[in-house]
Write a structure and sequence with these properties.
With 218 residues, the protein is an alpha/beta fold. The chain has helices spanning 14-27, 61-72, 93-98, 128-134, 147-158, 183-188, 191-207, 209-217; strands at residues 4-10, 31-38, 52-56, 78-81, 86-88, 108-112, 124-127, 161-171.
Length: 218
Amino acid sequence: MKDILLIVPSRGRQEKIVLFKKYFDMNSTIADLCLGIDDDEYDSYPKFDNVIYDINPNMKLGPKLNVIANKYCSSYRYIGFMGDDHWIKTYAWDQKIIEPIKNIKYGMSYGNDLIQKELLPTAIIMSSEIILKLGYMCPPNQQHLYLDDFWLRLGKTLGTIYYCDDIIIEHMHFSAGKSKLDDIYSEVNSPSLYQSDLKEYENYLSNNFKSDIEKLSS
């Protein structure tokens, strides 16, 4: 078993997973890959050796990350997330990205996605201790959006998040003209989801964020 479990949820993007796996294999050294696949699509996804397939009913990104992260956080020192539209471009990214947080109990670290860069961790690696302590990787009621805002705010408040500009994890997002708009992008970037997830994030900040910081400060 390796130090990092990298969770990559995917739906309807079989071809993106093939590309993701290509870059993962070229550049990873101490990370295991876990694909979060919905049970109604499992048969249509490529089957790779030495990959964990975590099969669940169709869920949005946030709930799926929480289900999978809680299954494995006791077995790995670090839990990570990337989208199926991230391409890992830096060799040994996994060794390098944990270097700043090796001696930090609740550490978080992220690389350069070439779009948001330091502004947002669109992909993240965190100490499993965070998940064990809070019971989740991201606020339970957020479906897809503002998860990276949560990670950044949590890490900055604790003073335990680190940005690694030289680790390139390119986000091949349609909004930057790096891929085509598909059904998944349309669904998760809808105005209604932005509104509902923003409401849930603001509710979390008002009612639960302070207590979470206290838990991670003890």
